[in-house]
Specification:
Blueprint: H1 7-65, H2 76-86, E1 90-97, E2 102-106, H3 110-119, E3 128-132, E4 135-144, E5 147-157, H4 160-210, E6 213-214, E7 216-218, H5 225-257, H6 261-277, E8 279-280, E9 287-289, H7 298-309, H8 315-319, H9 329-358, H10 360-380, H11 384-412, H12 418-447, H13 449-470, H14 484-492, H15 495-526, H16 531-559, H17 562-576, H18 586-614, H19 616-622, H20 624-677
Parallel strand pairs: 6-8, 7-9
Antiparallel strand pairs: 1-2, 1-5, 3-4, 4-5
Length: 694
């Protein structure tokens, strides 16, 4: 027998089936493409090297026609240097005379090539190809008026093709993984929307009917098998409602028409008993309820956050391509991140108030307009000012959309396990972070930075299409008595909330934007890593958060140890960021990112749930959305400070020292929060130190 509460196992089986269906054909296609690429790449490189050799030989031959001997040429190093710099597959350029003696060489020591050239037969006509150690040597004849004066040698890296194939293979595997994650997100959404969600609703209806409650029935939804089943169940509830009303009508008729007082009293007693045991709607028929679930908004939120995360791994590198008079390069690279975070901070309270008044669906669509405009302006920017305007517009849109989604999830989680319900929001954001980092780095490396921003605009529009069609617009919107600055001061009077924000929420954002968003990409780029590689390295952070968050959310709900998990996460993250002090190189950065990911994996979901625990009274007065908006406003102070502080530290301490300095700040604040959290359970109420007013 299939149980209505077995949706999780059904989704898991469908995910495995999707993997089996999608991955093998995609792997076969990519394997064939790689084989074709390898067969075609080697001849193309040979032709390119020969073309470069002929161009160089032509220029040198022109000098020879002017009577300049080859061994008396001047400036050959400067002549060879730009060619080597603009062609990464080349390792050296050399000029030999007719006897094979090296006259000029750039890119490699002459002693490596001389033994081969001295024994090679240069009498044969035409160009020739040879293997010299780890190099492929293309020798192009240098002739003037039919006389061979020597050869121009173009040396290619013998491992260039295998290295490129290896990089392409990694990119292919990354794209496959991202495609699989996106497919699973879509599958989860479709199953939850069309199967698991409706079945859970009808299960609740049956449970209510078992208790005698026939007031509400779920909306039937789509016209598929599940929809037909729900309609049949609804018809049964409506039939019971009809029989009840006919019975009550008959009882009223008996009471009004029967002359025997005893019969009337017995009928009235039966009627009272029925009304006591069973509950029916007072509107005349069962009320159709459009149930709101946290998963309703997951896919639109996922796509929207994915649009922003595409540029996460290279934003400081892109910002560094611009300049501002009198401003250091590090600060120029930090400004796009800082103004983006500042725009989110300033727009979040407004977004929270707007969501309370207009509802999540309309606010989501409203926020897409500045977001899409911001992506287009960022991609088209020709100066730092245009880039900053684009990031401000994107930040405003991001604040509005994410606040609408957070409000939707927060309200849908009422009556459920709070941390797990809010974990839907965290899960969508973190999964999008994984996919965006991975795919955005590949896109930027192969198509350029600007193309990634145009792709972000397309993804944001797709999120809007899903939100317009699928997010439930039926919401109860209530005006709250406090908003804006008044709500902020009201919250800050709660000392538990103030400690949480200053010593837990702000340091987490400080480390996130200062290290993951700013310092890590720049430091790794300085160490020689390409954009796609940097994006994959940053997955250590996002991946560890994704893996930990669901389990931690369940642990937080089961144990109630939310403040403890937040404190533990802060200590682990701060300690991990101190690791670059132990030595330079990539390994300490990798460990620091991993520790920070574990830190935020432990604290992300418990933080959202902890807000409601600490501010129970304020939630009743300001509204859950208003409280969350103020939390976002305050924690963005850390988001803004992170890249700015890091940019100020880098010229003094270097990248490793700046990471460690931010880690020391995070560690110190985590210690303070851990000590203060011990006292959270004392006082009149966990909601507020003040008396709860009726």
């Amino acid at each position: 027998m299939i149980r209505l509460d077995s949706a999780r196992s059904v989704i898991l089986r469908l995910m495995v089936l999707a993997a089996l269906v999608l991955l093998p054909p995609m792997a076969i296609i990519f394997a064939g493409a790689l084989g074709d690429f390898q067969q075609g790449m080697e001849p193309e490189l040979d032709r390119k090297a020969a073309t470069i050799g002929r161009d160089l030989a032509g220029d040198i031959a022109h000098a020879a026609t002017l009577g300049i001997p080859l061994d008396r040429l001047v400036g050959m190093d400067e002549f060879f240097a730009p060619v080597l710099e603009s062609n990464p597959e080349l390792r050296y350029l050399a000029l030999t005379n007719a006897d094979g003696r090296i006259l000029f060489v750039a890119g490699v020591q002459a002693t490596v090539l001389a033994p081969h050239y001295e024994t090679a037969d240069f009498e044969q006509a035409g160009q020739r190809k040879a293997i010299i150690d780890a190099y492929l040597d293309i020798a192009v004849p240098l002739e003037v008026k039919g006389e061979r004066l020597g050869h121009v040698h173009v040396g290619m890296d013998g491992g260039y093709v295998p290295a490129r194939l290896h990089e392409i293979l990694i990119d292919v595997v990354t794209v496959l993984a991202v495609a699989m994650i996106i497919a699973l997100e879509v599958l989860l959404y479709v199953v939850a929307l069309n199967a698991a969600g409706p079945l859970k609703q009808i299960s609740r209806t049956f449970e209510a009917a078992r208790r005698g409650d026939f007031i509400r029935i779920p909306a039937p939804g789509a016209r598929d098998e599940v929809g037909r089943f729900i309609r049949t169940a609804n018809d049964a509830v409506c039939r019971v409602d009809e029989l009840y009303r006919r019975l009550i009508a008959y009882a009223e008729e008996v009471k009004s028409a029967h002359f025997d007082k005893g019969v009337v009293e017995r009928v009235a007693a039966i009627e009272d008993r029925i009304r006591y045991l069973f509950r029916f709607s007072e509107s005349g028929s069962p009320e159709v309820v459009h149930h709101r679930r946290a998963l309703d908004v997951r896919l639109p939120l996922f796509l929207f956050v994915l649009s922003e995360e595409l540029s996460r791994s290279f934003m400081p590198l892109y910002g560094g391509t611009f300049s501002l008079p009198g401003v250091s390069p590090e600060m120029v690279a930090a400004l796009p991140i800082a103004v983006f975070m500042a725009a989110i901070a300033l727009a979040s309270p407004f977004a929270g108030t707007l969501t309370e008044r207009m509802g999540s669906r309309r606010v989501f669509l409203l926020g897409l307009m500045p977001a899409v405009l911001g992506y287009l302006l960022t991609g088209l920017a020709q100066a730092e000012a245009g880039l900053l305007v684009g990031r401000v517009a994107t930040g405003i849109g991001y604040a509005i959309v994410t606040m609408a989604c957070q409000s939707y999830v927060s309200k849908a989680a009422i009556g459920e396990q709070k941390a797990q319900g809010l974990g839907v929001y965290v899960g969508a954001v973190l999964t999008a972070s994984v996919c965006g980092n991975a795919f955005g780095g590949i896109l930027a490396e192969h198509a350029g930075y600007r193309a990634a921003f145009f792709a972000s605009a397309v993804l944001a529009v797709a999120a809007g299409v899903l939100a317009a069609r699928l997010v439930d617009p039926a919401e109860t919107v209530k005006a709250r008595r406090e908003a804006g600055v008044g709500a902020l001061f009201r919250l800050l009077r709660n000392w538990r909330f103030a400690v949480f924000v200053v010593f837990a929420a702000m340091p987490a954002k400080l480390a996130l934007t200062g290290v993951v968003f700013f310092l890590a990409p720049l430091y790794l780029h300085q160490l020689g890593w390409e954009v796609a590689d940097i994006a994959r390295i940053l997955l250590l952070y996002a991946g560890s958060v994704v893996l930990l968050s669901p389990a931690v959310a369940r642990l937080a709900d089961a144990s109630g140890w939310r403040a403890g998990l937040v404190a533990l996460g802060g200590l682990i993250g701060g300690g991990g960021l101190l690791l670059p002090l132990l030595g330079g190189g990539t390994a300490p950065v990798l460990l620091a990112l991993l520790c920070l990911g574990v830190s935020h994996g432990l604290s992300a979901s418990p933080q959202l749930a902890l807000v409601s625990d600490l501010c129970w009274t304020e939630v009743q007065e300001i509204g859950r959305t208003g409280v969350l908006a103020q939390v976002r406003l305050l924690e963005r102070v850390g988001s803004i400070a992170g890249p700015i502080l890091a940019a100020l530290l880098v010229p003094v301490t270097g990248y490793a020292g700046a990471i460690a300095a931010l880690g020391a700040i995070a560690m110190a604040m985590a210690v303070v929060f851990a000590v203060a959290a011990v006292a959270y359970g004392t006082g009149p109420t966990i909601g507020s130190d003040a008396e709860v007013r009726p």
